[in-house]
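INTERNAL AUDIT FORM
Audit reference: QA-55
Scope: verify that the stored structure record matches its stored sequence.
Auditor: D.O.
Record contents follow.
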Amino acid sequence: MAEELSRLAGLLYEIGLLKRYKRTGWLVAGVRDPESIADHSFRVAVIASVITALEGGNPERAAFLSLFHDTQETRVTDIPYIDKRYLKAAPNEEVTADQVRGIPEPVAEMMGGAVGEYEEKSTLEAVCARDADKLECLIQAVEYREQGHQNVQPWIDSSLAALRTASAKRLADEVLSTGSLEWMTQVLNGD
């Protein structure tokens, strides 16, 4: 058990790398200090719970799946889409299996199951979590565009095209028709 806990502690340190690793696609777009993978995953989890609630599923499950959807990037990094044309990373389920090898079985099963469900898109919650991943990218692209980055339209277009649920599509339309600080104006005006 001591060896398993030591490996688990190591995995928790490894997951912490996601706070330092940057989302590399934004570097391609010219963003000098892009969000971290952990920043992205946090908002994906929030969006997943929102979309899933609107779709009538289990918001907690969708948020849970989202927390683990990019944990593999500690080992394979955040490979930009253009690079994926030339590089073949191991499947996320395989990377996760390596990450959880030797840790307590309940934790290994929990993480492996979450990644497997997300990748298989076999549940409403997994579909909503995947939509949340794309919607978060779209929102981030809009925010970067408002900050003056002009090369983000491909991220907006590809994210919009990948959405599957009606709720995610409606939210995307709303995001694209409003500014990122309109909520603040509404609050200040007492709306």
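Auditor finding: record pair retrieved intact. The radius of gyration is 18 Å.
Action required: none
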